[in-house]
């Protein structure tokens, strides 16, 4: 599995340096010049971790951090020249997981990225909650707090993939690749059929979450209250 990184920084030299180090390690880097562009990038790419600068035009790093924390469950690293204690305090209050000041050692940033992935993989990936609905990826179970809801494996994997990134739009091609695999010989109508079945199964839980269609593109999960 390839991990996708969001790199939001208005300095092209910083972006080039970080991109070089991260792609060398096998990460896929999606770049943005400011916070507004970063939000747009996250609607298109399955971002697993964000590295963001604070001082950016249109939407600064503090605001971007708050947005990511509200809509996504991914680790965040602030990479910034603002090295005062008050700045670090604001960063952590807004939801960042780590804070790296410029100038920085690229290898140290890489170590921090790897450490955050290890932490989030253990904590976040196995259990996904959407109000009453809990998805246990390790034990392949879905519960509503009272009983276990039995799903066929591909429906379970599809629901878990969408639910892990609430609010994020996945194209049909992405879902085919992530759930069925790159060598799947069917077509994207398979996704539509499985989505229809999931909607039927969870019709009584519309107050907890919904699976929304973005016409011509794909699907996303919206969790109530998030």
For the record, the CATH class of the largest domain is Alpha Beta
The rough form would be described as globular
CATH topology of the largest domain: Rossmann fold
The H/E string reads: EHEHEHEHEHEEEEHEHHEE
Question: Could you give the count of β-strands?
Answer: 12
Structural class by sheet pairing and helices: alpha/beta
Main β-sheet description: 5 strands, parallel
Oligomer: single chain
Strand content: 15-25%
Low-confidence stretches: none
- Gyration radius (Cα, Å) is 18 Å
Helix content: 40-55%
Average of per-residue pLDDT values: 91
By CATH, the superfamily of the largest domain comes out as Response regulator
Counting structural domains, the number is 2
Count of DSSP-assigned helices: 8
The main sheet orders its strands as 2-1-3-4-5
Which CATH architecture of the largest domain would you pick?
3-Layer(aba) Sandwich
């Amino acid at each position: 599995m390839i991990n996708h990184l969001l790199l939001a920084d208005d300095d092209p030299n910083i972006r080039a340096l970080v991109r070089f180090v991260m792609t060398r390690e096998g990460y896929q880097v999606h770049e943005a010049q400011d916070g507004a562009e970063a939000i747009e990038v996250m609607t298109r790419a399955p971002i697993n971790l964000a590295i963001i600068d604070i001082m950016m035009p249109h939407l600064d790093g503090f605001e971007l951090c708050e947005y990511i924390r509200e809509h996504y469950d991914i680790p965040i690293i602030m990479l910034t020249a603002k090295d005062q204690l008050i700045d670090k305090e604001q960063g952590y209050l807004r939801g960042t997981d780590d804070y790296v000041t410029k100038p920085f050692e690229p290898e140290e940033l890489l170590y921090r990225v790897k450490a955050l992935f290890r932490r989030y993989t253990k904590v976040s990936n196995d259990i996904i909650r959407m109000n009453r609905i809990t998805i246990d990826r390790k034990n392949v179970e879905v519960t509503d707090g009272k009983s276990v809801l039995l799903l066929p494996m591909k429906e379970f994997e599809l629901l878990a993939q969408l639910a892990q990134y609430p609010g994020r739009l996945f194209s049909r091609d992405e879902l085919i690749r992530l759930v069925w695999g790159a060598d799947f010989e069917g077509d994207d109508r398979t996704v539509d059929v499985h989505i229809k079945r999931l909607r039927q199964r969870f019709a009584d839980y519309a107050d907890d979450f919904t699976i929304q269609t973005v016409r011509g593109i794909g699907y996303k999960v919206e969790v109530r209250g998030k």
